[in-house]
Amino acid sequence: MTDQPHVHDEPEYLRIPTEDGSEEKFEILFTFEHEETGRKYMFVTPADLEEDEDDYQEVIAFRYSEDQDGNLQLEMIDEENHDEWEMVEETFNTIIAEFED
User: Fold this and answer.
1) pLDDT tens profile 48-96
2) Which 3-state string (H, E, C) describes 45-93?
3) What is the tens place of the pLDDT at every residue in 30-58?
4) Does the pTM exceed 0.85?
5) 5 and 95 in contact (C-beta within 8 Å)?
6) Which of 90, 63, 92 is nearest to 76 (CA)?
7) Fewer C-beta neighbours within 10 Å, C or N terminus of the chain?
8) Pfam families, alphabetically (predicted)?
């Protein structure tokens, strides 16, 4: 259902504007493109946060595209689209399971 995810070997970062006008730095963990829809997705984590004592690390999923100048355009995934969320979550869990093996 999805193309092979692109896992970033070297840290790659992205700055995302916040509601208060500042920017937050995120590390791009991996990206993938859905074969059927052609939509691209990315998983990021805040770059400046430490993992907590339970090894929990916040991960955020975005749908993304690139404009004509190569700039990333991020889009939140619609919370009401359960099929899309299920596909994104399944892909995330599969990739994490591969890393744990």
Assistant:
1) 876 665 567 889 999 999 999 988 899 999 989 999 999 999 999 998 8
2) EECCCCCCCCCCCCCEEEEEEECCCCCEEEECCCCCCHHHHHHHHHHHH
3) 999 999 999 999 999 998 876 665 567 88
4) no
5) yes
6) 63
7) C
8) DUF1292
HEC assignment per residue over 16-40: EECCCCCEEEEEEEEEEEECCCCCE
One-letter amino acid identity for 35? E
Amino acid at 9: D
Q: What is the C-alpha separation between 65 and 75, in angstroms, rounded?
A: 8
- Give the pair of three-digit tokens for residue 95: 């990739």
Looking at residue 47, its amino acid is: A
Distances (CA, A) of 47 to 11, 17, 28, 32, 40: 10, 14, 9, 20, 21
